[in-house]
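Hi U.,

Before I forget, here's the chain from the pilot set. I'm dumping it here mostly so it's searchable later in email.
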Amino acid sequence: MNEIQGEINMQGKHITWHQPKISRQDRNALNGHKSCVLWFTGLSASGKSTLSIEVERLLFQRGIRTYTLDGDNVRHGLNSNLGFSPEDRTENIRRIGEVSKLFVDAGVFVLTAFISPYQADRQMVRELFAEGDFIEIYVKCSIEECEIRDPKGLYSKARKGELKEFTGISAPYEAPEHSELVIETDKLSIEQSVQKVIQFLEARSYITKMVDVT
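Structure:
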């Protein structure tokens, strides 16, 4: 054990968990709805950000307190010191998982849009949450379609070797095997994709089903 690790371990002995007087259940009751994390995972350009933004818009219209954590946005601040090595990708996801847990405890529907390419990392985050609080949504799209969309020109740069460790080209993407929901964005319109998420949440009573009064 080096000197720095020893100091960290020593400091850890003096850290105490302080129990708040306001619970998550209190916040959920105040908000009038449950809280959870919708974890959108998929290749770059698969539609994660677009889908999460539209789902959040509809939830917000229903009076549900929401917040979206987007991969690019988070790397501008909280994770600005991380690169794209496997180790940095894992730390990126670990931090987002912990932040998401705080949002859920605050009574908020948090939507995350991250490639999160490794199954082990997604499982690590899932284990932070109680049963039912983590909803993994696999935004499935063929790499061919992702390359056609390619709004940032990233696939083209990766093919030329200008981008190293790019998911789907020079770095792996481990597709989820047991996601709560799969959205095939190369087969569904954005409207159909959004409705599939909303219907899932309604069917499992995360949100109240809208009543048609017409």
